[in-house]
Amino acid sequence: MSPIVKKKGEKFTLPGKYLLFILTIICTGLIVLTLNTDYVSRPLTIVAGYVISPLQQGISSMGNWLGRRSEELVQIRDLLEENEELKNQIDELTIENTKLQQDRYELTSLRELYGLDAQYDDYQKIGARIIARDPGNWFHSFQIDKGYEDGVAVDMNIIAGSGLVGRVVKVGPNWAKVNTVIADNFNVSGQVLSTEDNLIVKGSLELYADGVVEFGDLIDNADQVVVGDKIVTSNISDKYLPGILIGYISTLNRDSNNLTKSGHLIPAVDFEHLNDVLVILQLKQNYEDM
Amino acid sequence: MRRGIITALLIIGCYILQSTVFPAIAFAEIVPNLLIVVTAACGFMWGDRTGLAVGFVSGLLADIFSGDAIGMHAMIYMYIGYLNGKFNGIFFPEDIKLPMALILISDLFYGLFTYLLLFMMRSRFAFPFYFMNIILPEIVYTILVTLLLYPIILWIYNRLEKH
């Protein structure tokens, strides 16, 4: 007899394996739907935004407090050793400082040349606080406390200090999900500031522990790119505004095809201690309208 | 009904802890997987149907807030909950060895599947690296947190069974 036949007077229940089968089909459907459309994720993000986000905002501050306490305990021991080292460093630095002051005049004039100074000021920005991290260990993304009610939209660029943090990948009424430069599934088209050579920056979980990000596809036949060069977002990227600092080249190698170069770069943003970020309200798609 | 509400609160509570408090106090950037603990525990305590329902809801929650396709985690968690439910017959509240072993295997399962679906598919083949740096630390950390979380779930289970 079939297990789903209803017996007299017994409450109807669906056996586990049938339920599993039905939900598997639903899941597959959801995956296909969300990969192609926005119908499912939109209502879900709204519901989640009102139920989960407010709780996260409250508890996140408690988490930060706990985090700071545990960090303090670890730090006390290190601080004693560090103090000794730092005293020695002061002497060295005083000498270096005088030298740097001379360099600064040179830098100011150079910066005017690059026109970098005013570049970010043109964009309208809003500040946002990070309220939650990715619950898993595989990708580096986080949630901020601003959503489409504050004017945030998908693909808006996120910066902190002077460097690129990432971009908005999903948005709810009062929260948004940000994917970072260091995340494994992250690619961004960049260019070397000094030579304007294009390259691709690729986030990698393997390299994350070393604090670097991978880049590749750099065509530099003139061998002008050197370690230490700045990498900024390029003009040809369809999601990122041009000229935002990504990081500095730390290693540079010629690929085996002898045409392109690849290497690692150190991101300009300290991702470990990130609490507040800026959302640029200008989308690259509407960039020409400015 | 009562059980449903309490389980829902447990899932939401664990998700929030996992996304806010634990990252702040994480060792070596690794966060324990509380949702797996809840899913597995509900599975072997109340059977495969509850397990798969709890897994589905937990996974969906993880999906909504991650940027990828909705349904991916829901599916992984759902199967883990369902398979844990198969051990319902040999689960006794006094015994702690079976729950621990099941939660450990569940988390291993989760790690392997995530690698397979989200990393190997993108031709990232350095499995030993991912195993040693992500999967294994997560399992160890999850088991440590389970030692604290499991008695709470067991207490809830005992209270609910009395009614």
Give your account of this protein's structure.
The complex is a heterodimer of chains A (290) and B (163). Chain A is α+β, with helices and mostly antiparallel strands and 290 residues long. Chain A has three domains: 14-51, no CATH class; 63-114, no CATH class; 126-282, Rod shape-determining protein MreC, domain 1 (Thrombin, subunit H). Chain A is 35% helix and 26% strand. Chain A has helices at 16-36, 41-51, 53-114, 116-119, 205-208; strands spanning 125-133, 141-144, 157-160, 163-171, 176-180, 187-192, 198-202, 213-218, 230-233, 245-254, 261-267, 276-280. In chain A, the strands form two sheets. A six-stranded antiparallel beta barrel of chain A has the order 1-2-5-4-3-12. A six-stranded antiparallel beta barrel of chain A has the order 6-7-8-11-10-9. The longest helix of chain A has 62 residues, at 53-114. The termini of chain A are far apart. In chain B, α1 packs antiparallel against α2 (34-46), α2 runs antiparallel to α3 and α2 (34-46) crosses α5 (97-119). Chain B is built from six helices and no strands. Chain B has helices at residues 2-24, 34-46, 48-65, 72-85, 97-119, 127-162. With 163 residues, chain B is mostly helical. Chain B has a single domain (2-162), classed as Arp2/3 complex 21 kDa subunit ARPC3, CATH 1.10.1760.20. Classes of the chains: A alpha+beta (290), B mainly alpha (163). At the A-B interface, α1, α2, α3 and β1 of A face α1, α3, α4, α5 and α6 of B.
